[in-house]
């Protein structure tokens, strides 16, 4: 009999996401397990750890996973797995799976941000990417949280309480750091500062995304999607509602796993990965 | 004898010089600097007090105060404010009379200025949009590598196999630095790569401004020998660095202040 389980491993610059999905026939693909590990400096190890953690979570031995697709910036450093695909393709596929009807994906990751335009059949029409600067990435928000002395999980909810957002004219992470310090010294409230910071990044991200035509409906993916302050700021700038799945952080890995399920069906080849650190 | 002060309120450090024209020509008699912090007025007052103490002059003994730098307009006790482009050009030209271009690498901003024959500013380009190519890039790298900022320049000179840093963004480059560290690359080679990346950004600015043959490097980063070497390697011209490279804009402001004061005094004496 054939294999039921397939995996997607999204090796991001900051975090590695791995999911196990299963195709149980008529019900369609189902998300079985997910795992999140810090990528760190050893990309290869992070991919293995992520994958094995997802297997543990699923309660299956790694050998039962019939096909593994790698994606993300570190995908070529994955030593196991059957094939690699770009994160653009995987994000589009994952977003349409999580939020059917998605035509635009705004993805805010740890160190880059991108917008993907998707056709009616789920195909990628166009994309733009910012990997040149930290504006609009999780790295930016982590930095701001650090300077403010609050945890990364707090910055979003706090920013929503801001009533009089401060003016932030730059999106350079380094410059915003000194802006924040001088606003703090002026006695501005943390929530007003954070509101201003989120709005500045939202404006910047939307102007990037406008370079692919933004069509509803719009899905926000990537780790930053967990930040409710950024969701609301983007919605305000876009003048539209965003679809944010509870699994938005795993969109790329889910897309990769969906491709893996398909490819597993197409080939009778058994698993060829051999994790060295199993 | 006239006593004039120039105060350069920079984003990281505020520098002040006091200048006297006792011997017919303007001479720097004192200098002082403090970290800028968030109270710009206080930083300017403290730097001035330090420069006055260095000169052995009394508080309040200067006739005229000119400010420059990003915080120049936040200093209420100023008589004159000039941009850091004007003051940098003026100060560099005083120290190197045949300079054709000035590169000012500060903490948050890098400026390339080209000079006309008479020393006036002919054109300039700045990277004021982001910290790429600015001194804060090095500050952050030094922090990560746990090296004293003062040692960074010397250490970079010992590089044997400089490793390129491909990120333009000062923040994203940090991850590259971390990756180099964990891949076992030597600190010397990493630092040298950082200077090379800064020099690349700076030379792009200079080329857009049109630089000529005699380049003067000023600003705090000019003190770092690794930066000077990286620039010379890339531009293929010698780079001149004044001894008090971080005080050049303050000096320029003081000289412009002195000139303005003389104009005012001679106008007043004509009227009387």
List the SSEs and their pairings.
The complex is a heterodimer of chains A (278) and B (272).
Chain A: E1 5-11, E2 15-23, E3 29-38, H1 43-58, E4 65-71, E5 83-84, H2 87-98, E6 104-108, E7 113-118, E8 124-130, H3 138-148, H4 152-160, H5 173-185, H6 190-209, E9 218-221, H7 228-238, E10 242-243, H8 251-266
Parallel strand pairs in A: 1-4, 4-5, 6-9, 9-10
Antiparallel strand pairs in A: 1-2, 2-3, 6-7, 7-8
Chain B: E1 3-9, E2 13-20, E3 27-35, H1 40-55, E4 64-68, E5 80-81, H2 84-95, E6 101-105, E7 110-115, E8 121-126, H3 135-145, H4 149-157, H5 170-182, H6 187-209, E9 215-218, H7 225-235, E10 239-240, H8 248-271
Parallel strand pairs in B: 1-4, 4-5, 6-9, 9-10
Antiparallel strand pairs in B: 1-2, 2-3, 6-7, 7-8
List keywords for this structure.
heterodimer; A: alpha/beta; five-stranded mixed sheet; 39% helix; globular; B: alpha/beta; 20% strand
Provide a concise account of the structure shown.
The complex is a heterodimer of chains A (278) and B (272). Chain A has 278 residues and is of the alpha/beta class.
Overall description:
The complex is a heterodimer of chains A (about 280) and B (about 270). Helix content of chain A is about 40%, strand content about 20%. Chain A has helices at about 45-60, 85-100, 140-150, 150-160, 175-185, 190-210, 230-240, 250-265; strands spanning about 5-10, 15-25, 30-40, 65-70, 85, 105-110, 115-120, 125-130, 220, 240-245. In chain A, a hairpin with a 5-residue loop joins β2 and β3. Chain A starts with a strand and ends in a 12-residue tail after the last helix. The longest helix of chain B has 24 residues, at about 250-270. Chain B is globular, with a radius of gyration of 19 Å. The model of chain B has no long low-confidence stretch (mean pLDDT about 90). The interface of A and B includes residues 13, 131, 139, 143 and 173 of A.
């Amino acid at each position: 009999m054939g294999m039921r389980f397939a995996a997607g491993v999204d090796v991001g610059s900051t975090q590695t996401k791995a999911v196990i999905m299963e195709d149980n026939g008529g019900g369609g693909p189902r998300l079985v397990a997910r795992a999140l590990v810090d990528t760190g400096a050893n990309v290869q190890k992070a991919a293995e750890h992520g994958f094995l953690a997802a297997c543990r979570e699923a309660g299956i031995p790694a050998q039962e996973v019939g096909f593994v697709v790698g994606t993300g910036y570190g995908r070529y450093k994955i030593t196991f797995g059957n094939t690699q695909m770009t994160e653009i393709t995987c994000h589009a596929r994952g977003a349409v799976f999580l939020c059917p009807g998605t035509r635009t994906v705004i993805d805010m990751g740890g160190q880059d941000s991108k917008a993907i335009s998707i056709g009616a059949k789920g195909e990628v029409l166009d994309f733009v990417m910012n990997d040149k600067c930290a504006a609009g990435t999780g790295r930016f928000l982590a930095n701001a949280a650090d300077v403010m002395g609050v945890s990364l999980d707090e910055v979003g909810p706090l920013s929503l309480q801001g009533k009089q957002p401060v003016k932030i004219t730059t999106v350079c992470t380094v410059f915003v750091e000194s802006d924040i310090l001088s606003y703090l010294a002026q006695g501005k409230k943390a929530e007003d500062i954070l509101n201003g910071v989120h709005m500045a990044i939202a404006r910047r991200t939307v102007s990037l995304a406008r370079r692919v035509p933004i069509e509803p409906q719009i899905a926000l993916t990537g780790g930053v999607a967990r930040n409710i302050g950024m969701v609301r700021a983007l919605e305000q700038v876009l003048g539209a509602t965003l679809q944010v799945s509870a699994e938005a952080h795993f969109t790329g890995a889910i897309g990769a796993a969906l491709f893996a399920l398909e490819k597993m069906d197409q080939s009778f080849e058994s698993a060829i990965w051999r994790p060295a650190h199993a | 004898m006239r006593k004039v002060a120039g105060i350069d309120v920079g984003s990281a450090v505020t520098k002040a010089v006091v200048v006297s024209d006792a011997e017919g020509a303007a001479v720097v008699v004192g200098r002082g600097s403090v970290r800028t912090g968030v109270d710009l007025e206080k930083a300017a007052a403290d730097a001035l007090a330090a420069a006055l103490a260095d000169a052995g002059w009394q508080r309040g003994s200067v006739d005229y105060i000119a400010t420059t730098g990003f915080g120049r307009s936040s200093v209420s006790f100023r008589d004159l404010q000039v941009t850091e482009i004007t003051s940098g050009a003026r100060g560099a030209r005083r120290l190197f009379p045949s300079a054709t271009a000035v590169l000012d690498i500060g903490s948050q901003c890098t400026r390339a200025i080209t000079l006309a024959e008479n020393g006036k500013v002919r054109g300039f380009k700045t990277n004021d949009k982001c910290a790429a190519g600015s001194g804060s890039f090095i500050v952050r790298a030094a922090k990560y590598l746990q090296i004293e900022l003062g040692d960074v320049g010397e250490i970079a000179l010992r590089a044997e196999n400089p490793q390129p840093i491909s990120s333009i963004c000062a923040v994203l480059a940090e991850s590259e630095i971390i990756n180099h560290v964990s891949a076992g690359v030597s600190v010397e080679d990493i630092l040298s790569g950082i200077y090379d990346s800064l020099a690349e950004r700076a030379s792009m600015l200079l080329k857009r401004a049109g630089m000529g043959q005699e380049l003067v490097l000023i600003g705090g980063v000019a003190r770092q020998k690794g930066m000077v070497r990286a620039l010379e390697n890339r531009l293929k011209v010698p780079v001149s660095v004044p001894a008090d490279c971080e005080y050049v804009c303050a000096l320029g402001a003081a000289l412009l202040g002195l000139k303005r004061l003389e104009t005012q005094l001679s106008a007043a004496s004509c009227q009387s």
